[in-house]
Amino acid sequence: MKYLQKSLILFLFSFVALHAQAQEAPKTYSHDIGFNAIVFQNFFGSGSAPFTILYKKYSSENKATRLGLSTSLNFQSAKATPSNVSYTTNNNASVSLIIGKESQQVISERWVWFFGGDLIPNFSYSKFDQFDPTNSDTPLNTVISYGLDIRPFLGLRFNINPRLYIATEFSGILGYRHTDRKIKFPTQTNELNTDDLNLSLVPASALFLFYRF
């Protein structure tokens, strides 16, 4: 499945690049679609960095509505063997929706800076299970959380050609998160529910590739 996903991404990337070169560009476009190039940093590894796809619909030449989806999946397990009956399972999954507005200002033919804000509802699930025959009190940990982030951003974009561009964003995040944690022992179950507010800054570390149409 992972090999198929990588092959599909490579195929789509090649198709978009060839199509962009073959098309005669009109003066303006109404749609952009792209994904974060952080996927290439983990392309040959097993990293769990989120994959984000983002669509922009322009209401005018320099104003757009943003819609996106960000997902992260990471499933790890160490299975029992005849010589070692202990095992470990660690599963993590998260999904976030992105709804926002963006305004752009042209610097030159190649360079554009932009700013705006996103509203990001999110959900995550994690489960850690471990069996050790020497420790009968090994717990099963399950964590479910959901929340909402407000994300103002400031970005810079470089136009490769009239249809392709790369972009990066610096952002701040004000987020609310509700977390339900369940720790299950053989003889009892402990539950902990928390509500948190978070304020953070995110440097411009992710690179997006966009196609215009």
Please report the total strand number as a whole number.
9
Largest sheet report: 8 strands, antiparallel, barrel
Calculate Rg over CA atoms.
22 Å
Class per helix and strand makeup: mainly beta
In sequence order, what are the helices and strands, one letter per element? HEHEEEEEEEE
Give, in spatial order, the strands making up the sheet with the most strands.
Answer: 1-2-3-4-5-6-7-9
Q: How many structural domains are formed by the residues?
A: 1
Q: Termini distance?
A: 30 Å
Low-confidence stretches: 1-5, 40-47
In DSSP terms, counting alpha (H) and pi (I) runs of 4 or more, how many helices?
2
Based on the structure given, which CATH architecture is correct?
Beta Barrel
Mean pLDDT, to the nearest integer, reads 85
What does this 3D model show about the protein?
The chain has helices at 2-22, 38-41; strands at residues 31-36, 51-60, 63-78, 87-106, 111-131, 140-159, 164-184, 189-202, 208-212. With 213 residues, it is mainly beta. It has a single domain (2-212), classed as Porin (Beta Barrel), CATH 2.40.160. An 8-stranded antiparallel beta barrel has the order 1-2-3-4-5-6-7-9. β3 and β4 form a beta hairpin. The radius of gyration is 22 Å and the shape is elongated. It starts with a helix and ends with a strand.
